[in-house]
Amino acid sequence: MSPVVIPARIKKILIIKPSAFGDIIHSLPFLNAVKSTFPNARIDWVVAHGLHTFLEGHPMIDKLWVIKKDQWKKIGYLKSTLNEIFGLVKGLGKEKYDIAFDLSGILRSGLITLASKAYMKIGFEESDEGSPFFYTHKIKGGMDNHAIDRYLKLAGFIGCDTSSVNYPFAPFDNHSDICNILPPNYVVISPSAGKPANQWPAEKYGELASMLPLPSVVISSGADAAIAERVVKFSQGKALSIAGKTTLKGLMPIIKGARFFITNDTGPMHLAAALEVPVVAVFGPANPVRTGPYGSIHRVIQKKLPCSPCYAWQPCSHWRCMNELTVREVFDVVKEMTET
């Protein structure tokens, strides 16, 4: 589809991408392309509570519409949810956006797009849950493209230059207090994942850490601290857990200072790729074409099985994609990368 002719006087743009962490990082090149084309436009962003801290203070974003979306399906929060939704609908409607972009493509984000009352409501034609019904312009993103390239197609549709991929981050501290306890030369391991099926066993990460020539720093959320501690347990004293001890922005100097980043398919993996830290990514049922680390300096390790990728949420009965992936296979890839 050819780009549409968009007047340069566009004043207000809304980006709808509440979550997840990795998806928000994928959206930053889109934000950069749009702001570069429309430098005088106001850009607002609908983001989930908790993840909003990563975007706070961003010089390209004028306002964050923060929603507690995780509570919206919980009956105990019905009253507060209704108040939040009514306030969001009323507030968005008053803004008179020229363009609203739905990068999520589900029913909730489609309804938020509708609520924006934007003159142009743009999303993907293959989006889920009926969300394209709410768009004025439907763009073919393609399901066999990386998420970053798909998002940039929306920017290209309104005439933005998408020839380069740049990640504009909100300001962050280049040296947090926790950096003081880290070894001078280290690898970061991220052993948790949003989907249990995407999680290579923690004891294997621990065994891998025991074989590496460098010490490992293990990161995760506080909720997944037990996974990080299991990695430490099997590392023979060569891993340090800082699980739950950093903010999202606080992860940035830690990852930026690493020699390598070894991980499952998870949000911090995309942060490492954006920071140009070499990534070794362990993939099972997920599709690295869509959600792998973006860039040529990274390596994806995935068993070639007829059932993969299956996009499963929970491990299946055999879970061969993860169970049959050995520590030695991953170690060999890391070793190869260190020698090149």
From TrEMBL:
Q: Which GO terms describe its molecular function?
A: ADP-heptose-lipopolysaccharide heptosyltransferase activity
One cellular component term from this protein's GO annotations in UniProt: cytosol
Keyword field: Glycosyltransferase, Transferase
Transferase as a keyword? yes
A Pfam family it matches: Glyco_transf_9
Biological process (GO) annotations held by this record are:
lipopolysaccharide core region biosynthetic process
Q: The organism sits in which domain of life?
A: Bacteria
Tell me the protein's name. Answer: Glycosyl transferase family 9
Question: Upper taxonomic classification of the species?
Answer: Bacteria, Pseudomonadati, Thermodesulfobacteriota, Desulfobacteria, Desulfobacterales
